[in-house]
């Protein structure tokens, strides 16, 4: 196909007219089947062509991305094989180079499309130890930096999103792999510098922070405690997002990011936890945010506890009260059906929170301060045992809490609580449920062993489990 022909086909692939659109899609499919390398080379030239309309370039990028990835597993495997074995090296190099070049395009649609193409190729090649120089190229050519400067100059938020998106995808695929550890510090500084500029340059209503936060999450997971050096510069953006109840999707992402960051940083996250806890508690009380946020916030409390260990004692009294209050929420027979799902996810959040808190108090030798909370925890476990409205995740979290509590008080302090029949039954039901995943059943078995130890192995009730 000539350039004008491919332009027309790509234009038709965006047409509101279903007949035109289907015909165009068939032409693209046929071109891919006839000569796959030529098809890729033709598309990437249109993607990189600065004289072509942005919408056509975006359509070329979408067609390219669809040449590498598919939802259907067999089709996806087939496309990967075509790229790996059915495409010559010259074409591969051309596709990669022109796409990297387009990443820094002043045209937002083209830059965004290029980010998706790079991510799709990276997902195929990086796990196979190919395209090893990709991250080096991004650093040396300062693609990200160039793109950020263009973003600042043009206030083009979408171009910033393209930068954040490709960083996020590549970081997620590759940074956790150990061989990149040496590159990590250079990359981390470059990536965070770029992302902070992007965050500084976009308005409150932009969707860029979502992509930037995804990239930061991937980077923090890779760098773990070393990410701490960026926290002072980054936390103002995170606090703003946590407080931004008018943008629920951003606020939700910020809550998830607090979990990611505290898990990555461990005790080093402690200086920021007062602010995190205040924002999370405010969001919990909010009438602006929907109830769906509450389970994630409760889970986040557990992640913070797991990260800062005994330091969480500062927040224990307040959070215990919050968890007790959340445990009183029930679904009624005459209420909306969605309420049943909400109650289950809320209880999952409560159990995740207690799991983190019990572990934190145990590891720091502070289990004595927890003891007055134990009756409240068992009260909720008893409710869960008598309510058939459950999920596997809830049962797994509950088994974890039962085992953690038995393990935290090894001298039989809770022996009377653990002797109750309903508890034995709950563990047995979870342990023998054939629909549950092995890790859930393993957690139930572990809980049973901990309870047996708590009872000194003398209980005939537990022997039945």
From TrEMBL:
A single cellular component GO annotation: nucleus
GO BP term, pick one: protein import into nucleus
SMART domains, sorted: IBN_N (SM00913)
This protein's UniProt keywords: Cytoplasm, Protein transport, Repeat, Transport
Superkingdom of the organism of origin: Eukaryota
Importin N-terminal domain span: 24-105
Compartments reported by the entry: Cytoplasm
GO MF, one annotated term: small GTPase binding
Protein name: Importin N-terminal domain-containing protein
Organism: Verticillium longisporum
């Amino acid at each position: 196909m000539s350039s004008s022909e491919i332009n027309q086909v790509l234009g038709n692939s965006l047409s509101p007219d279903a007949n035109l659109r289907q015909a165009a899609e068939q032409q693209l499919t046929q071109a891919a089947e006839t000569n796959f390398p030529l098809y890729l080379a033709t598309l990437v030239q249109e993607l990189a062509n600065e004289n072509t309309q942005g919408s056509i370039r975006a359509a070329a990028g979408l067609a390219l991305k669809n040449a590498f990835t598919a939802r259907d597993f067999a089709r996806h495997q087939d496309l990967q094989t075509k790229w790996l074995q059915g495409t010559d090296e010259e074409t591969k190099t051309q596709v990669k180079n022109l796409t990297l070049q387009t990443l820094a395009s002043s045209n937002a649609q083209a830059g965004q499309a290029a980010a998706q193409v790079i991510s799709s190729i990276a997902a195929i090649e990086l796990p196979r130890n190919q395209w090893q120089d990709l991250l080096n190229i991004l650093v040396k050519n300062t693609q990200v930096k160039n793109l950020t400067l263009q973003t600042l100059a043009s206030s083009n938020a979408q171009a910033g999103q393209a930068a954040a998106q490709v960083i996020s995808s590549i970081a997620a695929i590759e940074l956790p792999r150990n061989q990149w550890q040496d590159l990590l510090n250079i990359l981390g500084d470059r990536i965070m510098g770029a992302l902070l500029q992007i965050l500084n340059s976009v308005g409150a209503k932009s969707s860029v922070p979502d992509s930037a936060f995804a990239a930061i999450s991937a980077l923090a997971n890779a760098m773990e405690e070393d990410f701490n050096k960026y926290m002072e510069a980054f936390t103002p953006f995170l606090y703003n997002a946590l407080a931004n109840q008018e943008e629920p999707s951003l606020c939700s992402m910020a809550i998830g990011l607090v979990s990611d960051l505290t898990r990555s940083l461990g005790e080093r996250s402690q200086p920021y936890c007062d602010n995190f806890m205040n924002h999370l508690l405010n969001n919990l009380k909010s009438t602006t945010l929907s109830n769906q946020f509450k389970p994630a916030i409760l889970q986040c409390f557990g992640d913070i506890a797991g990260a800062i260990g005994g330091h969480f004692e500062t927040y224990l009294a307040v959070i215990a009260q919050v968890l007790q209050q959340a445990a009183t929420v029930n679904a009624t027979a005459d209420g909306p059906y969605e309420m049943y799902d909400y109650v289950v996810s809320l209880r999952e959040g409560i159990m995740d929170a207690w799991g983190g808190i019990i572990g934190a108090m145990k590891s720091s030798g502070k289990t004595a301060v927890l003891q007055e909370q134990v009756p409240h925890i068992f009260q909720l476990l008893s409710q869960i045992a008598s309510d058939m409205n459950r999920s596997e995740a809830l049962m797994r979290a509950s088994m974890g809490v039962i085992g953690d509590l038995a393990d935290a008080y090894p001298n039989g302090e809770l022996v009377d609580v653990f002797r109750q029949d309903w508890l034995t039954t709950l563990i047995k039901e979870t342990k023998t449920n054939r629909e549950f995943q092995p890790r859930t059943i393993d957690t139930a078995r572990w809980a049973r062993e901990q309870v047996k130890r708590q009872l000194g192995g003398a209980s005939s009730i537990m022997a039945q489990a």
